[in-house]
Design brief:
With 64 residues, this protein is α+β, with helices and mostly antiparallel strands. The protein is built from two helices and three strands. The longest helix has 18 residues. The model has no long low-confidence stretch (mean pLDDT 88).
Amino acid sequence: MNCSECASSSFRLSRFRWSDLERLALLQYPVRCRNCRRRTYVGLALALALLQARRAKRKVGGAA
């Protein structure tokens, strides 16, 4: 997946807002581009993969 604004492929999970509940019902979760900070939605499977990658990075980095 690439950002529609800057074509970057680097994303992070975005903070959840109450207005995102409707999208969550459609199995979409908000993410933010690390390069241009554009907020968009991805499928829940991709969002969970980003979450797992973040947890693995924290574990390797030594933080609990």
